[in-house]
Design a protein that fits this description.
This protein has 330 residues and is an alpha+beta fold. Helices cover 32% and strands 29% of the residues. This is Bifunctional ligase/repressor BirA.
Length: 330
Amino acid sequence: MQSPIRKKLLEAFRQANGEFLSGQALADIVGCSRTAVWKHIEDLRKEGFKLDAIRKKGYRILHTPDRVSQNEIHLGLNTKSLGQTIYYEETVPSTQKLAHQYAQNGAPEGTLVIADEQTEGRGRLMRNWHSSKRTGIWMSLILKPQLPPQRAPQFTLIAAVAVVQAIEEVWDLHPEIKWPNDILLNGKKVTGILTELQAESDKINSIIIGMGTNVNQTIEDFPQELHSIATSLAIEKGQMIPRSRLVQKILEKLELYYEIYMKEGFSPIKLLWEGYAISIGKEITARTITGEIKGKALGINDDGVLRIQDHSGHIHEVYSADIEVNEPIQ
């Protein structure tokens, strides 16, 4: 976890918006000596921050490194709770496993667990997720809504809307959502979302939302078997992208829609989700553990369940499946 002084220091630079802050002003803001401020400034430099220091004017940040540690995320983060507590590791087996441990040990709502690399990353149905070092965003977020457990699956859909809008707004790319948990760009997967639960029979203790996004990979960074189905933001945009900025925007969007959901219910989120979904109104094949269902995707219900109308007119409610989009319905 980041020190409180470092967090206050970065918040002061964020609010200064590129203007100089004197050593004394920083010392007053963070509540320490000017010598201590100077030591923290030097530590930031060692981490890759570029700071301007001019006598009688003070300090300002010129450049932040492309890292996803507490310092880079907190500098520019505009949330009330999500991401205010961050646990960063360079390499972990799985941020999801680590977040479960923190949640069980009383971590506050909004705690983010993030890493530069996962060695045992996984997606839905225990599938492996390729999580290469310093190229993507591998993170898990802890939420603690006062809700019954049956409403937990909706949080996958809330997170999907947040991720899509974050990518849209910051980089002018146009992702789509593939039910239940994939974000696609030009038909290839760029983000996967995994929502897991710690709960009792009548209440949620914690929801752990794992989000893995391919950001700065080149095609050579993916195993050969993924070349036809995976992509990254950098591949699609044609340039490298600062990962911490995307983390910030996802957290900001997710906090917004989480608040809307808790006040107004799922209906506003449902409309947004369906607007980004690739399958709505199209002919799809849904492969479940009991067989295949072919038909027209009608949308989702208020529980996030996919509704499919087969060729005989019967409507199926699908809770879990792999879907393939076929030709559009004419």
